[in-house]
């Protein structure tokens, strides 16, 4: 970056959301943009999460851009290495390299009401301005490690699953895995064979369904290469099945009972010990927390070198780990699989809006944004994967592409307005949208299933999940309704225009 670089659009982050936004900008004829990335390569969460066993729980052909189909996916559920390679491929195919600014973590973004642009400061000392900012940092980008008393006294290695220490040899080590989320159920089977002793600290058991993963044959890949329509049909089928499932999650959670029976049979096949089965059986409705997919997790837990502590970690005394139920365990390594800052995204603390407040302060009572994209008081600022855009059963790429449609129309509206202009979401529009979302949320399994999940914020409100189908969200974000926005113009220009009007009168 040059010292005083100015761009039409600044995109923050180079995961699926950021790269998708960049591709859409180029397709809209906008080439005056940069992608600010805090790391040294693209990939977002698929770059950061490189732990053993890391893979996607959404089928490969659905977990990719519709405008960049990949006929070469090697497995029905692809691993981290192949997904990251796909994102590198997208970067090269669509000519995004010249727009990338690596090692440029955003420290501060401030709306300049006089110049009508965003002032951006980065960690590498760079400063630039932008007419529009697209924040695509994603909710799974900043690891959350609980504040455990005595953790500093632990003499061994401690790290989060998203910051895996690849230099550490776990052979023969006493390893403590903290958490039972999507990362943990992949890590446990991957490291169990080499660990001397593996202890899983389980605060809440998860519902785990079989993962129907297999290699995609060469014949299938050849067919997808030579007849691209077959890739589209495969993607469409995967999408349609998941759309049909949405009603059970959003309107009739009682219909999920039969799915629980499948999950219980999955457990019973591998876990023969009744006491261990009891520990691993959730007491909440399936779907309340994200349903996890694994055919290796339960078999790994049944191995003789694995212990399950049905309680969270509450204290560390040197190399002794103490669970909330008093159980003590000796460990050489602690691995946290404790999730991310989802409802309190750190980027929100670095964005300062028109009234001088940060986005975090605006969202103090809970995240909310018009159509999951724009917040009142933050002109020309849009979030990809914003509040209430998450999914519990399908591919986030579908939601990202819908938000990119909204972004494209947002920029078209600014172009039509001409000159220096900004769109600021009206508070009443944000409130109305949020009320509709929260009203629909009341009957969903995520709110009624009897669990406490990372979908909920500190006040217990679900500010993460979209309570409908992806098709509904696509329709809701097809275009920008200017009635939901206040059109802003620079004060000086507005005053001069009023003066000219008075002279003309």
From TrEMBL:
<dbReference type="GO" id="GO:0050660">
    <property type="term" value="F:flavin adenine dinucleotide binding"/>
</dbReference>
<keyword id="KW-0274">FAD</keyword>
<keyword id="KW-0503">Monooxygenase</keyword>
<keyword id="KW-0285">Flavoprotein</keyword>
<dbReference type="InterPro" id="IPR036188">
    <property type="entry name" value="FAD/NAD-bd_sf"/>
</dbReference>
<comment type="similarity">
    <text>Belongs to the FAD-binding monooxygenase family.</text>
</comment>
<dbReference type="GO" id="GO:0004499">
    <property type="term" value="F:N,N-dimethylaniline monooxygenase activity"/>
</dbReference>
<protein>
    <recommendedName>
        <fullName>Baeyer-Villiger monooxygenase</fullName>
    </recommendedName>
</protein>
<keyword id="KW-0560">Oxidoreductase</keyword>
<dbReference type="InterPro" id="IPR000960">
    <property type="entry name" value="Flavin_mOase"/>
</dbReference>
<keyword id="KW-0521">NADP</keyword>
<dbReference type="InterPro" id="IPR020946">
    <property type="entry name" value="Flavin_mOase-like"/>
</dbReference>
<dbReference type="Pfam" id="PF00743">
    <property type="entry name" value="FMO-like"/>
</dbReference>
<dbReference type="InterPro" id="IPR051209">
    <property type="entry name" value="FAD-bind_Monooxygenase_sf"/>
</dbReference>
<dbReference type="GO" id="GO:0050661">
    <property type="term" value="F:NADP binding"/>
</dbReference>
<comment type="function">
    <text>Catalyzes a Baeyer-Villiger oxidation reaction, i.e. the insertion of an oxygen atom into a carbon-carbon bond adjacent to a carbonyl, which converts ketones to esters or lactones using NADPH and/or NADH as an electron donor. Thus, can convert bicyclo[3.2.0]hept-2-en-6-one into the oxidative lactone products 2-oxabicyclo[3.3.0]oct-6-en-3-one and 3-oxabicyclo[3.3.0]oct-6-en-2-one. Is also able to catalyze the sulfoxidation of methyl phenyl sulfide (thioanisole).</text>
</comment>
């Amino acid at each position: 970056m040059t010292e005083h670089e100015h761009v039409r659009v600044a995109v923050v982050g180079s995961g699926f959301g950021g790269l998708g936004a960049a591709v859409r900008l180029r397709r809209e004829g906008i080439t005056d943009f940069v992608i600010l990335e805090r790391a040294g390569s693209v990939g977002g969460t698929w770059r950061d999460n490189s732990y053993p066993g890391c893979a996607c729980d959404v089928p490969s052909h659905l977990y990719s851009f519709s405008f960049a189909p990949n006929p070469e996916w090697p497995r029905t559920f692809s691993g981290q290495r192949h997904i990251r390679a796909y994102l590198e491929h997208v970067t090269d195919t669509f000519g995004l390299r010249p727009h990338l600014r690596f090692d440029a973590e955003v420290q501060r973004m401030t709306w300049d009401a006089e110049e009508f642009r965003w002032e951006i400061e980065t960690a590498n000392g760079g400063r630039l301005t932008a007419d529009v900012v697209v924040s695509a940092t994603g909710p799974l980008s900043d690891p959350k490690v609980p504040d455990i008393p005595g953790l500093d006294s632990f003499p061994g290695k401690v790290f989060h699953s998203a910051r895996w220490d690849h230099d550490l040899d776990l052979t023969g080590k006493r390893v403590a895995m903290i958490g039972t989320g999507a990362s943990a159920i992949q890590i446990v089977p991957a490291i169990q064979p080499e660990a001397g002793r593996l202890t899983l600290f389980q605060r809440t058991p998860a519902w785990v369904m079989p993962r129907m993963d297999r290699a995609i044959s060469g014949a299938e890949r050849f067919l997808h290469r030579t007849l691209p329509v077959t890739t589209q049909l495969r993607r469409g089928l995967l999408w349609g099945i998941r759309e049909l499932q949405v009603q059970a999650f959003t309107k009739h959670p009682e219909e999920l009972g039969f799915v629980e029976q499948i999950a219980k049979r999955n457990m019973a096949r591998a876990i023969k010990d009744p006491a261990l089965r009891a520990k691993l059986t959730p007491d909440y409705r399936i779907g309340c927390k994200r349903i996890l997919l694994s055919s290796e997790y339960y078999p790994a837990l049944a191995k003789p070198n694995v212990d399950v502590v049905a309680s969270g970690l509450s204290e560390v005394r040197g190399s002794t780990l103490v669970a909330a139920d008093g159980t003590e365990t000796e460990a050489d390594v602690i691995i946290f699989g404790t999730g991310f800052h989802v409802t309190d995204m750190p980027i929100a603390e670095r964005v300062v809006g028109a009234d001088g407040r940060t986005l975090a302060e605006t969202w103090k009572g809970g995240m909310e944004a018009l159509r999951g994209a724009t917040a009142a008081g933050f002109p020309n600022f849009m979030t990809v994967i914003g509040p209430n855009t998450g999914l519990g059963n399908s591919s986030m790429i579908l939601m990202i592409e819908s938000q990119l449609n909204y972004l494209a129309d947002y920029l078209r509206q600014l172009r039509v307005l001409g000159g220096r202009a900004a769109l600021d979401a009206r508070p009443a529009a944000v409130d109305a949208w949020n009320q509709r979302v929260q009203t629909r949320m009341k009957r969903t399994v995520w709110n009624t299933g009897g669990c406490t999940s990372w979908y909920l914020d500190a006040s217990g409100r679900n500010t993460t999940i979209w309570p409908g189908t992806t098709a509904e969200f696509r329709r809701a974000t097809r275009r920008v309704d200017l009635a939901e926005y206040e059109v802003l113009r620079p004060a000086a220009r507005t005053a001069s225009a009023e003066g000219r009007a008075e002279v003309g009168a």
